[in-house]
Write a structure and sequence with these properties.
Phosphatidylinositol 3-kinase Catalytic Subunit, Chain A, Domain 5; 6 domains; 7-stranded mixed beta barrel; 6-stranded antiparallel sheet; 61 strands; flat
Length: 1031
């Protein structure tokens, strides 16, 4: 949906004071006086309230308003999403948002910036035009928490903000000014560890930068600054044509520095990105010198402390390489244009978006005109092969081939086990007796060759990696994890002979030794014969294709999906995946011999685990960066995303494309598919002016009771009306006269408070197959009961026992301009049928002497037609919306054999539940079957015991494996394979309802149509007498 929404709520007195401070220009505006506030955030992950917040105005040159920039701080014991503060900026918000994204994609740590809607005491102060375009930018604050988020493996370093004096006379231009910290305090400010007051790292850095011996200058400088990072930062700033009074203009102003503990080299961090990309209130020349940081913009002298660094030709050459790399990657139209659309396209004027894209094309060309295409620096050789994938083979016996995902490639005794091939490459027979194989070096003797086992010269020995007994050949007693595993061969003394470790495998392809050097590669299975290499594709095309940053029900953890568009498999062994490219591009290293199938996917759980198939980090639902690097840390792909929604993934559409889309059904391991477009048509089955007949009964039995049930009831003698205004009733004074088409005053007033109304209508289609929604709109004074084809569907102010002369139980004044009530009958469309239908109403006045009375209605249906191709995941979506667990009997007093789980189809459409799976709590896969609308079905612990207790009239899907825990446990109900999403994921507990813990009652969900996340809430459940298969 739209951007996150935030509320800052103050007393009116403090709000007015803050606004007054922010409007001054006499120095009062610079105060940091903060007002007490309550902070509320509403985003895709839910609603959060933070009391005892403090809000103040912020900014330097943009401090005054209206509107103002705001800084919102939170108490230590009441942090918001683990943050102590957030900022809201209001000047050229689009530039700040895009600038942050580009820096982070380039591998530079930068404050996260996302579009935000902000309400100050309910008021939206954002201007719809420039410089806000309707949104604030929510900007990450620079504090101790910034270091923890952006330098998670080195969070305890020093963060400095660097600004020139307001007078402009002195700048933070990285000059050495002696050992006294007081010489630096007025331009360099500690943003973390303020109380320690330790400036030694900063002083040492600028000392080296300015005073290191020439003979070792670059070597010494590389120890105190991350030179590559500095040059890349400066290159991004130059390509931005940043016109802020900062480094790109040759001014020591508007930047941050961070020095870690584990890595004490300083890095640059950007600040104030509102005048970049030809946006903002200052514009530079498109061909501005790329060395303006030291030459200075017109009228500037350059950053003094960097002039010596850039006097070295090799530094300039490396800097030019950074510019070229950025032009070919992050700033290339192929990547940059979709990024602009993704970050700004939904809310920015398209002429501004197009202007930014064109500017980058022009700036790229202008930069290349200065530096040329040819690198002046030496290239870097890339690593190739897998020398470290295995331990060197000792002797002639080797592990020669491993098939770790044998879906259907090689059959053995009627099944498809994982397989291992050993090869004797020597000239002598090898006695295998007592030698062992294992998938765990901590247990080297998992499989031990029996006495007499041997291999002849040139022989291949194939072993089954399974736990079967009997059958052909040897069985190892263990199978492989296709997401990553190892195989280790030991001699009789337990010493290693050979080994291989591998990552994600491709079904029906093996890994084996090939070539003259016997290195490992992907192979076509040839168990028992010489290995055959499988051709590989180009890994440069791999794309980060889908990601989930906040799983709750559908998925228990975040995930990242990689997609290989090449028709051939690709090798990603020793590649790296990270969410912190600025400081740790190698955060997750793929195991050697990791592969992605041709036109296939690799899915990794981002859950802070390090075992195969997992990543040692989690994604941030508030926005994050993901980057993929090859073995030489060359970036293959990267994405930046904004705040996410719980259980909704984001990814490329179609697979591998640059366009991003959200997916309400995340599909890791499957193709990303667009939701079909739909056409919604509303049909007036009954208009307010439709033909209707009404009668006021004069005695009991005068009108047969089937007047409200029979469509063909003879009402020809009843008074009728058609056309506008369409109401039935009377008005003795003024008010309803413009609403009434059939006047019943003479028949009702002083005689009877009830009238009967019949409104026939015709449906030309199959309503269940055609309609998705059905609504009844009514205007009434004072009460009524409505029947649809004889079934009561609505009742207001009506006595429980209706008589021919009943009066309304309360008064109600009808709305003159519209309907009073709307009833949603979408779950009762089945009451309609093709052909003739009837809406019958007993309408009632509050008394026979009330001065007015009216009733009118319309009935409308909504039809949704899908445009374009059929959506392949439609049944999965229907299951997510409509299949619910409604009852749990988990501790039956007669014994666990009477435990059961009841499920219901809570929608108006039939559900194909074939293949739906319980994967936690119990194990069960639904056979081929369909549930009708409203139908309930149970899965049971013991079929025979259940039948004996509850009879044969309950629909039973089958008997599950395992047992429900008497103390509570997690229950996971998943979609059929190949989907991995869960329909429901919750954990019940025996203390929720004590009578269900062996007391004979079951847990019953209160509202089966509630959001799936509420199944985890004990307040959503109640206790009840067991009623499997029944409401």
């Amino acid at each position: 949906g739209g951007p996150p929404l935030y509320y800052v709520i103050m007393t009116e007195m403090e709000r007015a004071r803050l606004a007054r401070i922010g409007s001054r220009s006499n120095g009062e505006e610079d105060t940091k006086a903060a007002m007490n506030a309550t902070f509320i955030s509403i985003d895709g992950t839910g609603t959060r309230l933070c009391y005892r917040a403090a809000v103040r105005n912020r900014g330097h040159g943009t401090r005054t308003g209206p509107p103002n920039n705001f800084h919102v701080g939170f108490p230590r014991d009441g942090l918001w999403k683990d943050l102590a503060a957030v900022n809201f900026n209001c000047r050229y918000t689009h530039a700040q948002i895009l600038g942050s994204a580009v820096f982070r994609l380039a591998g530079i740590a930068a404050a996260n910036a996302v579009p935000a809607e902000l309400r100050i005491n309910g008021a939206d102060l954002a201007s719809s035009a420039s410089p806000m375009y309707g949104v604030y930018v929510r900007l990450e604050a620079f504090d101790d928490n910034f270091s923890k988020r952006h330098f998670p493996d080195d969070p305890n370093g020093n963060l400095y903000s660097c600004f020139r004096r307001d007078s402009g006379s002195l700048e933070a231009e990285l000059r050495y000014e002696g050992t006294d910290p007081n010489a630096y305090r007025d331009r360099y400010f500690k943003a973390s560890h303020v109380s320690q007051d330790d400036w030694s790292d900063l002083i040492h850095m600028v000392d080296v930068l300015n005073n290191a011996p020439e003979a070792t200058y670059l070597e010494d400088v590389a120890k105190v600054i991350n030179l590559r990072q500095w040059l890349r930062y400066i290159a991004v700033d130059s390509l931005f044509l940043n016109q802020e009074t900062g480094l790109n203009m040759g001014i020591g102003d508007d930047y941050f520095l961070y020095c870690g503990v584990a890595d004490p080299r300083f890095v640059l961090i950007p600040h104030d990105l509102d005048t970049i990309l030809d946006q903002g209130n200052a514009h530079g020349s498109i061909d501005m010198n790329v060395l303006s940081i030291v030459t200075g913009a017109p009228g500037r002298n350059g950053v003094e402390g960097l002039k010596r660094l850039f006097s070295h030709p090799e530094v300039v050459a490396l800097y030019h390489d950074q510019l070229r790399d950025l032009i070919d990657t992050v700033f290339s139209p192929e990547r940059f244009d979709p990024l602009v659309d993704h970050m700004l396209g939904d809310w920015m004027p398209q002429d501004v978006v197009g202007g930014i894209k064109q500017f980058v094309v022009r700036r790229n060309a202008a930069v290349l005109a200065q530096i040329g295409r040819q690198s002046e620096a030496n290239g870097v050789l890339l690593e190739d092969g897998y020398p470290s994938a295995t331990a060197p083979a000792c002797g002639d016996l080797v592990i020669n081939e491993v098939l770790a995902d044998n879906a259907s490639a090689v059959e053995r005794d009627g099944i498809f086990p994982d397989l291992v091939e050993l090869y004797n490459g020597g000239s002598e027979t090898i006695d295998l007796s007592g030698m062992s194989l294992s998938d765990d070096p901590r247990q080297p003797a998992k499989f031990v060759f029996p006495v007499g086992a041997s291999m002849n010269p040139g022989e291949y020995l194939v072993l089954s990696a399974d736990d079967r007994e009997g059958g052909a050949g040897f069985h190892l007693g263990f199978a492989f994890n296709a997401q990553g595993d190892g195989l280790y061969l030991y001699d009789r003394a337990g010493e290693p002979v050979d080994s291989v470790e591998f990552g994600s495998q491709i079904p029906n392809l093996s890994i084996g030794r090939v070539g003259a050097d016997n290195h490992w590669s992907l192979t076509i299975p040839t168990l028992g014969r010489a290995n055959v290499r499988q051709p590989l594709g180009d890994p440069d095309g791999i794309r980060i294709n889908e990601w989930l940053a906040n799983g709750r029900v559908l998925f228990g953890s975040d995930f990242i999906e990689l997609y290989n568009p090449d028709p051939l498999p690709v090798d990603v062994g020793k590649f790296h995946l990270t969410d912190t490219p600025s400081v740790d591009p190698g955060r997750h290293r793929f195991r050697p011999l990791s592969f992605i199938a041709g036109a296939g996917y690799l899915v990794l759980d981002a859950d802070d685990r390090t075992d195969p198939g997992h990543l040692g980090f989690k994604l941030s639902s508030d926005g994050d960066v993901i980057a993929l690097y090859d073995t030489s840390h060359r970036q293959i792909d990267s994405v930046v995303f904004t705040p996410q929604t719980t259980d909704v993934s984001q990814g490329r559409l179609p697979d591998g494309a640059w366009r991003f889309e959200y997916f309400v059904l995340p599909t890791p391991g499957l193709s990303n598919v667009a939701m079909p477009e739909s056409s919604v048509t509303t049909l007036d089955l009954i208009s307010e002016s439709a033909v209707k007949r009404a009668i006021v009964p004069t005695s009991a039995g005068q009108v047969a009771e089937d007047w409200k049930t029979r469509v063909d009831f003879d009402d020809s003698a009843w008074p009728s009306t058609s056309g506008p205004p369409g109401g039935v009733g009377f008005e003795r004074s003024t008010g309803y006269e413009q609403l009434i088409g059939l006047d019943l005053q003479n028949a009702m007033y002083g005689r009877n408070a009830t009238c009967y109304i019949r409104i026939p209508f015709h449906v030309d289609v199959d309503p269940v197959a055609t309609f998705s929604e059905l609504y009844l709109n009514v205007r009434y004074d004072d009460g009524f009961v409505a029947y649809l084809n004889g079934e009561e569907v609505a009742r207001i102010n009506a006595p429980s026992l209706l008589q021919w002369n009943s009066a309304a139980t309360a008064s109600h004044e009808a709305d003159y301009s519209g309907f009073d009530e709307t009833f949603d009958f979408s779950d009762r469309i089945g009451l309609l049928h093709a052909g003739d239908n009837l809406l019958a109403v007993q309408a009632m006045n509050s008394s026979t002497t009330s001065s007015d009375f009216v009733f009118s209605a319309d009935l409308e249906a909504t039809s949704v037609a899908v445009i374009g191709e059929d959506y392949p995941y439609l049944n999965a979506l229907l299951l997510l919306d409509g299949l619910r667990i409604t009852e749990l009997m988990y501790n039956a007093p007669q014994g666990e054999e009477l435990d059961y789980i009841e499920l219901q189809n809570v929608t108006i459409a039939s559900l194909d539940v074939t293949g739906v799976r319980f994967t936690a709590g119990v194990d069960f896969i639904f056979p081929s079957m369909t549930l009708d609308p409203g139908q309930r079905i149970v899965v049971v612990d013991d079929w025979a015991a259940f039948r004996a207790q509850y009879g044969d009239d309950v629909d039973v899907a089958g008997q599950y494996a395992g047992h429900l825990s008497n103390g509570g446990e997690a229950i996971v109900l998943k979609l059929p394979e190949p989907f991995d999403a869960a329909i429901l994921r919750f954990r019940y507990a025996d203390e929720w309802q004590p009578t269900t813990d062996g007391g004979g009652e079951s847990l019953v969900i209160k509202d089966s149509t509630a959001a799936p996340a509420t199944w985890d809430d004990p307040e959503s459940w109640t206790s009840s007498q067991p009623g499997p298969g029944r409401p």
